[in-house]
Amino acid sequence: MTDLAASQKIGAQSPAHGISFNEALLVWMRVAILSFGGPAGQIAVMHRILVEEKNWISEGRFLHALNYCMLLPGPEAQQLATYIGWLLHRTVGGIVAGGLFVLPGVFAIMGLSYIYAAYGNVGFVEALFFGLKAAVLAIVIQAVVRVGKRALRNPIMIALAAAAFVAIFFFGAPFPLIIVSAAIIGFVGARLGRPEFAAIDHGGKSSAAIDSMLGEAVPDHVRPNTARTLRVGAVWLALWLLPVLALLIVLGPNDVFSQIAIFFSKMAMVTFGGAYAVLAYVAQQAAEYYHWVTPREMLDGLGMAETTPGPLIMVVQFVGFMAAFREASGLPPMLAGTLGGLLTTWVTFTPCFLWIFVGAPYIEALRGNKALAGALSAITAAVVGVILNLSIWFALHTLFRQTFPVHTLGLSFDAPVITSIDLPALVLSIAAATAIFRFNAGMLVVLAASCAGGILLRLAGVI
Fold this sequence. Notes:
Layout: H1 2-7, H2 21-33, H3 38-53, H4 59-71, H5 76-119, H6 123-151, H7 155-170, H8 175-191, H9 209-215, H10 226-251, H11 256-270, H12 275-289, H13 295-307, H14 315-326, H15 333-365, H16 370-399, E1 403-408, E2 411-416, H17 423-437, H18 443-459
Antiparallel strand pairs: 1-2
Helix pairs in contact: 2-5, 3-5, 3-6, 4-5, 4-16, 5-14, 5-15, 6-13, 6-16, 6-17, 6-18, 7-16, 8-16, 10-11, 10-15, 11-14, 11-15, 12-16, 13-14, 14-15, 17-18
């Protein structure tokens, strides 16, 4: 790969934009360490550091890249970091930015998975995660509000979000169908010149480093190139799928490791809309079809991901760990869990690099295309409806001990058993939401306070 070879020379010198690889490495490490709170918080951190503080990329180009990443399957924040790292320092820059974004979470979630598997039924640990779930619910609701304020700028966008929510929550519509429908509406609307679908000029600094570099002669790695696209695609497909094929051949399709590899590889291809959309799909399949975890364990895993740096989708590593831990395939359970968690992480994140390295040059070439901007804006609006769907799913399983399925008149959704309401969880969730929305408390403060609240409730004998 000539792109990779050229990238390896960057560390010793500053490219046209004047940002050395070593300088970027330190910044990406900082972004990784501060990447708490799910995609909304992580995108905010990158925007603050890369757009406002460092002025490496203009707000317009940042949002263009973000809209593309939201269109892709997988975690948009990690893919956004990969995209910007690629713009700065080619393939190596993308690998470093995207890899560092994930690495702290890999170690943190693995350590917490060990503790959970060994001591998960201990009262203290249960109380800790009880508090975490209340904070997570408030954080997900905050994500709906924050993304909604950015995306739902007119009645058409609000209607798209509402339609997406109704379709996915009440009718179980496939998410790809929702995304494709929104994209078509946005594309047609923009082509017709409807102002509702026009890209917003967010301003920003015109002298941003990447934009200055791309304003004159466009670097070779940013230009679309069919031969390079095929070469890069072949390499990343092999890295992703050859381990899956090897497991199927050696262990057979019914082994837990083969099932993990196949399921999370499928997830990497079909779960559009970022981490919140992914989690709705994983929770349903892992809890109801494979029975690897229970819905409440899924919420515990989400609490782990919220309290550690890295993408929120790192919760899938916990799911893979618990699946292999419980079906150890002749291995010591902790070793099986470790391998299951690492396998899950590999097949989840390797495709993310594929999508960026193959598609980003073409997205850069289409940056001024009004029809594409309209499609991406409509997709962003639809994603708000999906995030709302997830927040209600979490609320049902956090605030109620029992739910029942409703299947009538074409509707298909879970409804709560009102008498099973969990009052301590409700009180903690209201307190967490008040801290976030009324007092603008920080993410870590809310998480720590909710954990402490869970422990105090346990000591008081309430839970």
